[in-house]
Amino acid sequence: MVTMLTTIREIQVPVLALILLGACAAKLMRAVRNSSISAGLGPTELFPRRLRRPAAVVVCLSEVSLGTALILTAGRLGANGWAEAVRLGTALLFGVAVCGLVELREHRPDLGCGCFGDLSVRPVSARTIARACLLAAAALVSVGTPELRLPPPGPAAVADLGILLTELLLVALLSPEVGEALMRLGYSEPCEVREADGRRALTALYRSRLWRQYSHLISSDVPADMWRELCWWYVVYPVHGGQRTGEQHGSGQQGAGQASAIVFAVQVKPHRPAIRSALAGPQAAGTPPPAGLRRWEPTTPLRSAAL
Question: DSSP label at 284?
Answer without folding.
Answer: T
